[in-house]
Write a structure and sequence with these properties.
The protein is an alpha/beta fold and 327 residues long. The protein has three domains: 63 residues, Arc Repressor Mutant, subunit A, CATH 1.10.10.10; 132 residues, 3-Layer(aba) Sandwich (Rossmann fold); 123 residues, 3-Layer(aba) Sandwich (Rossmann fold), CATH 3.40.50. The chain is 40% helix and 22% strand. α6 links the parallel β5 and β6. It starts with a helix and ends with a strand. The mean pLDDT is 90.
Length: 327
């Protein structure tokens, strides 16, 4: 940026900081006041918006954000009481990343275990939900409640509520897992997981659709999504006499399956594909191909989303979906 442009940017930023929480003058007036063209003004406003200093609303105008009002002092982490974090390394890792991010930004957090239909004691300056119990919290928010971001949950957000939902592209990930096995010439598939858990259902459905369309044969085996359940199943599951690809609904289940299978000698090759991208699946000796969830990006974006929803100009909630990817 040229010296002249930097001077205009500094002048505009000073004006914005002096109008915290207010609507800025129109483009024509601002451009005249600063002595720049309207396209030049729009470029500067785009930079200020990226820095979180202004927010533009179509049909309403551009508003200077009150940084003090948007600041997060304390955030509530509302965790589904039915989530057994010791048996679910993925959610444990996600919770750890959220806490690391909050600490790095000097935001205090309060952890509360939630049951379905239970109202939290406090939403603090904002709240983050983990687990299915978050659905009831999101769907019962009132217009004046602090902002809430629901992680990995499907919910209908009230129109006036300041809330967003972050989800994964689970069905698409399931389809990619099946394509991975098809590319390695597998045509026999065993899908392992639970249909009553949304993420598991979506992943297995996506895999089944792609495998079936390609002429593959799919069998479904119901199993809890934890290591011990996978271990027991791996020791007892009936395997076909030809090579088989197993698609497990999450990594922890897949690791248990692999341990159970290693205690026996399958008559044909078995290849396991799963989801989440836990560090343990990086071990090449396990032979598990895992689609990775961008946990660090989700944690960072969650804090940024709470700030966005706290801005004095009414912010619209949204649904954000994150794709899984191969390492």
């Amino acid at each position: 940026m040229s010296t002249h442009a930097n001077e205009k940017y500094a002048a505009l930023r000073q004006l914005v900081e002096g109008m915290a929480g207010q609507r800025l003058p129109g483009e024509r007036e601002l451009a005249t006041r600063l002595g720049i063209s309207r396209p030049g003004l729009r470029a500067l406003l785009t930079r200020l918006e990226a820095e979180g200093l202004v927010r533009r609303h179509q049909g309403s105008g551009t508003y200077a954000i009150d940084q003090q009002q948007a600041r997060l002092h304390t955030v509530a982490l509302l965790i589904d009481a039915e989530l057994k974090l010791g048996d679910d390394p993925f959610f444990s890792l996600l919770l750890e990343q959220l806490q690391v991010q909050l600490q790095a930004e000097e935001i205090h957090c309060v952890i509360e275990r939630m049951h379905k239909q239970q109202r939290p004691r406090s939403l603090q300056d904002g709240a983050i939900t983990l687990g299915i119990a978050g659905r009831a919290i999101l769907e019962n928010l009132r217009p004046n409640d602090p902002p809430v971001v629901g992680l990995l949950v499907h919910a209908n957000i009230p129109t006036a509520a300041h809330a967003s939902v972050f989800q994964l592209t689970d069905k698409e990930a399931g389809a990619e897992a099946a394509r991975h096995l098809l590319n390695q010439h597998y045509r026999e598939f065993i899908l392992v997981g639970k249909h009553d858990i949304p993420a598991s259902h979506e992943r297995l459905t996506g895999a089944e659709e792609v495998a079936t369309q390609a002429g593959g044969h799919c069998a479904f085996v119901a199993c809890a999504l934890n290591y011990m359940a996978g271990l027991r199943l791996g020791r007892t599951i009936e395997l076909p006499s030809e090579p088989v690809g197993i698609i497990a609904a999450n990594d922890w289940l897949a690791v248990g399956l692999q341990a159970g299978l290693s205690s026996r000698q399958p008559v044909a090759p078995v290849h396991i594909v799963s989801f989440d991208g836990l560090p343990i699946t990086e071990d090449p000796l396990l032979g598990i191909a895992s689609l990775t969830v961008p946990i660090e990006a989700i944690a960072t974006d969650t804090i940024a989303e709470l700030r966005r929803l706290r801005q004095p100009v009414a912010s619209v909630g949204r649904i954000v979906r994150y794709p899984l990817h191969w390492r």
